[in-house]
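Re-running the complex after MR caught last week's input typo. The corrected sequence lines follow. Everything else is unchanged.
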Amino acid sequence: MNLKHNTAFGFTFSTPCLLFALVLLLLSIIPSAKIISSPIPVMASVEGNQESDDNDNEENTRDEDDEDDGNSGDDIDLDEMNLLQICCAWSDKISDGVLEYKISDGGDEDSKQSVRNAIQDWDLLIDNLIFVEKQDDSEADVTIGFSDSDEDANDEEFDYGDSIAAGKTEFRFDNTGFIDSIEVTLSGGIFGNGFQNSELEQIARHEIGHVLGLGHANFDGSLMSESTDGGTENISICEINGVLAANYWRLVAVGNNPEYPEANFAVC
Amino acid sequence: MLMLHSNTDAEAGLGMYRKMSFPKYMAVIITAIKNTLMV
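Corrected-run output:
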């Protein structure tokens, strides 16, 4: 029996067309999906904020889960792939489509403008979410500050040996594991090294990537690479994909109920 | 060299692979392209 018409999707399909479309769909699913996800809730590891020393144990746990889940047959060498970590999703604080931020005192006006420029770059590329700067003293979802004190220079989290710590993003999660608030600290010149405004803008762009739910890239040349030699990496489609996947519930589905990220990496 | 830090760095764990559901994946890609084109 010929299926002459199928208008369920607003198109007209003959049977051969339908079969051909199904084959294309299956082919596209199997080899080319570019966003991959953890078999365990990604937030489970985020909530604990484990230190890197715990990574081996974490990986072992995930490997076991992977085998149990029947996914070990994928045989994909992740070390050879350019990956961008997808960290976590915002709570219902952004269910109104607004992410409030506040730039605290401490930086000069040029530095503050560099931060605003970085935020605007993201704002233009992420639909269904707008950044609103708060000028009063009330709490904001994201607080961005500057540091040039020796106190931070002695902080273990800024200690990278010969390298310069340029920015830091600290997440606070609610009791369900969604992002509740974030504090970003940008270096105004700790260790005696001041940054040009263009450098500060790039550092801020990177940290805002974290604010939007991204982790780090495992390759050089990305905005979200863990280190930079002063390049001018811009926001790529890979970072946009990652942010959308992290906060899918709001940025794509435009829903009201937070959901954990289904994916934990985007392939760049 | 500048180091850029967040307190979620430790959750790297590259030991797993599973695809995002295809409808969501396609929705992400389409939305990303749409957002990019609108700039």
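None of the earlier attempt is carried over here. The two ends of chain A are 45 Å apart (CA to CA). The longest helix of chain A spans residues 15-32.
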